[in-house]
Amino acid sequence: MRHAFPALWNLENKYGSVIAGAILSKLSSKGNSVKTGGALPGKGRNKRVSFSFHGGMQSLIDALHNEVGDSNVKLGTEVLSLACSCDGVSSSGGWSISADSKDAKGKHLKKNQSFDAVIMTAPLSNVQRMKFTKGGAPFVLDFLPKVDYLPLSLMVTAFKKEDVKRPLEGFGVLIPYKEQQKHGLKTLGTLFSSMMFPDRAPNDQYLYTSFIGGSHNRDLAGAPTTILKQLVTSDLRKLLGIEGQPTFVKHIHWRNAFPLYGHNYDSVLESIAKMEKNLPGFFYAGNNKDGLAVGSVIASGSKAADLVVSYLESHTNQDR
Ligand SMILES: Cc1cc2nc3c(=O)[nH]c(=O)nc-3n(C[C@H](O)[C@H](O)[C@H](O)COP(=O)(O)OP(=O)(O)OC[C@H]3O[C@@H](n4cnc5c(N)ncnc54)[C@H](O)[C@@H]3O)c2cc1C
Prior knowledge:
about 35% helix, Protoporphyrinogen oxidase, 12 strands, EC 1.3.3.4, flavoprotein, binds flavin-adenine dinucleotide, Polyamine Oxidase, Chain A, domain 2, five-stranded antiparallel beta sheet, FAD/NAD(P)-binding domain
């Protein structure tokens, strides 16, 4: 809980329970707004809402891509090794990276290109496969613990509105394992995507995003599309009174969807800190470190960028 959902953990830690914490936090935020006389603009400034973008989450990635500039983005490029000259004096060009490019446009990393700092956002299991050297000698990552990842399949289905007899309004349903067993359901939950974001489906249809897999159903996550289509249609029939077959199906399978934040995750974080401490100019960010939600991952990247700026500034001052 502490690492996967830091905001909930903070509530529990501060107030003794997540639910009590959520209520108290809400009450205290109401109190604050009275005290400050609502000095900040916007009535619901503490309100948490689901968010997305026109055209889906890919719009965010495309916007970042445009901002950085196409020539600075290397797609389909697997980092194989990183070398830090690490003379301990200058930050300038201390890092070099070798990569295998499968990018059809053939945009390879330039040979002998060097970098002042590195922000690593690949999952730790991938980092463990990379080769690191420090000052010419191998920097062995045997202190990184093995991280367990949860497999997941995502099924996007659309149904004609007239075939959905109980079209519930809201963001969706989450089905605890006990309820799955009790009612013979197989999905972990379903987002009512077109209820939240109407532009996601034609006017005469509803779009649903269902999740299958997780810790209790690891094998099911890897089942073929035809089987998962049947399971999802059957669950939605029970939940929403759906009749007939979907008009649209898209299946995406993640073998390693989420890092599993177990009881010993502190040791994972300690080993990330050890890497950052022993490799000058190396910073780690992403959902293996700072929480799973997209907002947490964005904050994690932003924090790493600030650390790089401080690192470069402090070394520039030393160089003078
Ligand atoms: C099915 C699903 C649904 C989700 N739904 C939600 C949701 O509704 N709301 C929410 O807030 N969060 C959701 N999440 C969680 C959230 O999307 C993730 O936690 C977040 O996107 C992770 O971002 P990241 O950058 O840390 O990691 P990733 O997005 O996993 O990025 C890691 C990147 O590293 C790259 N990489 C790996 N190895 C190498 C290498 N050797 N060289 C170069 N690159 C490499 C990978 O290709 C990948 O692009 C969902 C996740 C999944 C899987």
